[in-house]
């Protein structure tokens, strides 16, 4: 094992105590652990925040493209207990949920009449060819001796997991048992640059616990409707928790989600209030149960599309489906050339300054 791999795995092993019965994603613990050896991680995230805001500010309504963009997905099933070797059907159900939620599809649980709910114009499809143009189902299966994985361990074959497929071409989703009771976690856009290009390219993607993946099958209530992946892919596309991971003085960088002082959990019977306003507890980036969540706002959709364009361009630029048809219009732009510094006042906020 190379030094940086042993380093990251050992470092991440410190994460051990997170409550299990309620939704808890690894976004913040993951950042904190990365920052132990790489304090500049927070600086990079602030930089990313600034770039995303500038992009959306410049593009406004054009930040969401009119043409749907399709992200090629590979799902890595890693199992020791054969009950964790989940069916293709369950994998397909998860892809279906992602598309229902990200497209706000009528007639599905992803549809809502909430006035701010928005179709993101982003879709997901299992890859039909791999990076070497070989036919694939978009699903890999790995039998392991590891009962429960430490963070990041599942992303390496030599540690009992499964190496990523080219992360510049596929959204890699690892499905396995994860230590610490986390439902899942995601690598944020550009956030691991300080760990080196090799690190970024081998770990980028989303991890989901086997019992929280897809609809039905091994998924257990109240997290059995596939919304953990909807939430984690939201992080992967640049979204933050709706309460800004702090009190009322922290924001999520999105102005059409009201400030919230804390996460909401379970199934609130009345609309919670904090920070002088109603919380948008049904937002996918809050912590409520799967059957409560159904909103991405317009500005969240803008931000995810900005992330896709600025940081994950390659995913939509090649044909992972063997169809000979491109899978989405991605307009590379020169925004960060001459006019990159015109909006100096938009400074990206004070995110993560409380660590
Ligand atoms: Zn989260």
UniProtKB/TrEMBL annotation:
<keyword id="KW-0862">Zinc</keyword>
<dbReference type="InterPro" id="IPR024079">
    <property type="entry name" value="MetalloPept_cat_dom_sf"/>
</dbReference>
<dbReference type="GO" id="GO:0006508">
    <property type="term" value="P:proteolysis"/>
</dbReference>
<dbReference type="GO" id="GO:0008237">
    <property type="term" value="F:metallopeptidase activity"/>
</dbReference>
<keyword id="KW-0645">Protease</keyword>
<dbReference type="Pfam" id="PF05572">
    <property type="entry name" value="Peptidase_M43"/>
</dbReference>
<dbReference type="InterPro" id="IPR008754">
    <property type="entry name" value="Peptidase_M43"/>
</dbReference>
<keyword id="KW-0479">Metal-binding</keyword>
<protein>
    <submittedName>
        <fullName>Zinc metalloprotease</fullName>
    </submittedName>
</protein>
<keyword id="KW-0732">Signal</keyword>
<feature type="domain" description="Peptidase M43 pregnancy-associated plasma-A">
    <location>
        <begin position="162"/>
        <end position="308"/>
    </location>
</feature>
<feature type="region of interest" description="Disordered">
    <location>
        <begin position="334"/>
        <end position="355"/>
    </location>
</feature>
<feature type="region of interest" description="Disordered">
    <location>
        <begin position="253"/>
        <end position="274"/>
    </location>
</feature>
<keyword id="KW-0378">Hydrolase</keyword>
<keyword id="KW-0482">Metalloprotease</keyword>
<dbReference type="GO" id="GO:0046872">
    <property type="term" value="F:metal ion binding"/>
</dbReference>
<comment type="similarity">
    <text>Belongs to the peptidase M43B family.</text>
</comment>
<feature type="compositionally biased region" description="Basic and acidic residues">
    <location>
        <begin position="339"/>
        <end position="355"/>
    </location>
</feature>
<keyword id="KW-1015">Disulfide bond</keyword>
């Amino acid at each position: 094992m190379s030094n940086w791999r042993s380093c990251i795995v050992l470092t991440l092993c410190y994460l051990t105590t997170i409550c299990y019965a309620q939704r808890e994603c690894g976004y913040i613990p993951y950042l904190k652990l990365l920052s132990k050896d790489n304090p500049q991680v927070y600086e990079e995230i602030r930089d990313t925040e600034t770039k995303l805001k500038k992009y959306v500010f410049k593009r406004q309504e054009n930040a969401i493209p009119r043409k749907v963009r399709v992200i090629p997905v590979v799902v890595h099933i890693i199992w020791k207990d054969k009950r964790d070797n989940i069916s293709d059907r369950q994998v397909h159900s998860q892809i279906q949920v992602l598309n229902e939620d990200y497209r706000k599809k009528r007639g599905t649980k992803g549809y809502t009449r909430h006035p701010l709910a928005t179709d993101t114009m982003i879709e997901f499809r299992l890859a039909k060819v791999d990076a070497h143009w070989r036919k694939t189902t978009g699903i890999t299966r790995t039998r392991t001796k590891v009962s429960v994985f430490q963070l990041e361990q599942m992303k390496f074959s030599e540690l009992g997991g499964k190496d990523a497929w080219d992360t510049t071409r596929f959204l890699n989703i690892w499905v396995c048992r994860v230590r610490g009771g986390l439902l899942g976690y995601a690598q944020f856009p550009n956030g691991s640059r300080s760990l080196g290009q090799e690190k970024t390219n081998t770990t980028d993607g989303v991890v989901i616990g086997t019992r929280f993946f897809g609809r039905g099958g091994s998924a257990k209530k109240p997290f059995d409707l596939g919304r953990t992946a909807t939430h984690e892919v939201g992080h992967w596309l640049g979204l933050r928790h709706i309460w800004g991971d702090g009190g009322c003085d922290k924001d999520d960088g999105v102005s059409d989600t009201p400030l919230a002082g804390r996460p909401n959990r379970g199934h609130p019977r009345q609309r919670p209030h904090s920070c002088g306003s109603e919380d948008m507890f049904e937002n996918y980036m809050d912590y409520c149960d799967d059957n409560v969540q159904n909103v991405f706002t317009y500005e969240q959709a803008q931000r995810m599309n900005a992330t896709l364009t600025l940081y994950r361009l390659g995913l939509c630029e090649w044909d992972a489906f063997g169809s000979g048809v491109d899978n989405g219009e991605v307009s590379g732009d020169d925004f960060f050339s001459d006019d990159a510094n015109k909006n100096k006042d938009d400074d990206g906020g004070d995110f993560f300054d409380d660590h």
